[in-house]
Design a protein that fits this description.
about 300 residues, alpha+beta, Jelly Rolls, Arc Repressor Mutant, subunit A, sequence-specific DNA binding, transcription regulation, transcription, DNA-binding, DNA-binding transcription factor activity
């Protein structure tokens, strides 16, 4: 039996962990102690997604492991964990791990990037960054927490100033471990907007022309931008996003192969299996069986 096209995603989508999804305000910012949610959950945060929210976790004491998509990142305090919006992620913290979780709406970050474009690199991918002790990241978090707790004149401006200092300090820490990224140009911005549309429509077949129309550009211009920025075609970006959702369903759900195929907009499960095998080198069932230990651990 074919499932409805609005089949829920394999990985739970939350606003903040455990909270039903909702739209974040343009300037949404939230700061809380790490153990507010990790301690009641026995230091294990199961895999989940925040669709429009980026997160920075400052780990002050303890350590653990972050799982981001199919990758694992071990970490030890003091360190900083960056989790981009839309990333399937979870944590296993050592008992008593202490720190702070900053959650920032993607729209707020885009606004800040309009003033400081280099900030976009901070959430270009999941990262675990060791920190010097003490350092500017910890100082910026402490000052931001104080301003959020107060109701003094100029509070909003002070909060944004300390937020910007925190993001810049985190970016500089990232730059110390990676090659610095160039500020995004028009082609990078077009590719980013295309990826946002793919995120919204990847559960159904959609021609490239429809994406180009939504973006107000020609298909040729969209292809050129994706080639220059991502080194691949728009069609491949779409296929990779659909493959990612298929992998999530295989790893984190009990849906059958046919059910997963229908939930991703494929009318024929056999075609879905060929699509998956072409993209990964193995059939869906083999992928699920090979990663069975990971799947069992995450549930």
């Amino acid at each position: 039996m074919r499932l409805d096209s609005v089949q829920p995603p394999a990985v739970p989508h939350f606003f903040l962990y455990g909270e039903a999804p909702r739209d974040a305000d343009d300037r949404f910012l939230h700061l809380e102690a790490l153990d507010d949610r990790s301690r009641p959950n026995r230091w294990t945060i199961r895999p989940h997604v925040h669709s429009g929210l980026h997160q920075l976790l400052l780990i002050a004491e303890g350590g653990g492991e972050m799982r981001a998509e199919a990758e694992r990142h071990a970490f030890t305090a003091p360190c900083l964990l960056a989790v981009p919006a839309g990333t399937a992620h979870g944590f296993r913290f050592a008992d008593g791990t202490a720190g702070t979780v900053l959650t920032l709406s993607a729209r707020y970050l885009r606004d800040l990037c309009g003033r400081e474009p280099a900030l976009a690199a901070l959430f270009s991918g999941p990262a675990a960054l060791p920190l010097p002790e003490p350092g500017p990241v910890e100082e910026a978090v402490a000052e931001l927490a104080r301003e959020i707790a107060w109701a003094a004149p100029g509070r909003r401006g002070a909060i944004e100033a300390h937020l910007m200092l925190l993001l810049v300090a985190s970016l500089r820490r990232l730059a110390a471990t990676r090659e610095p990224a160039s500020p995004p140009g028009p082609q990078a911005l077009l590719t980013a907007r295309f990826r946002e549309l793919v995120e919204a429509h990847h559960r159904r077949e959609r021609p490239l022309g429809a994406y180009a129309d939504d973006l107000g550009v020609t298909e040729a211009r969209l292809r050129s931008a994706c080639r220059a920025v991502a080194g691949t075609s728009p069609g491949q970006i779409i296929r990779e996003r659909r493959l990612l959702e298929a992998k999530r369903s295989l790893l984190y759900s009990d849906l059958g192969i046919a059910e997963i195929a229908y939930s991703l907009g494929f009318s024929d499960p056999a075609y879905f299996s060929r699509f998956f095998a072409k993209g990964t080198g193995e059939c869906p069932r083999a992928f699920r069986d090979r990663r069975g230990a990971d799947r069992g651990e995450a549930r």
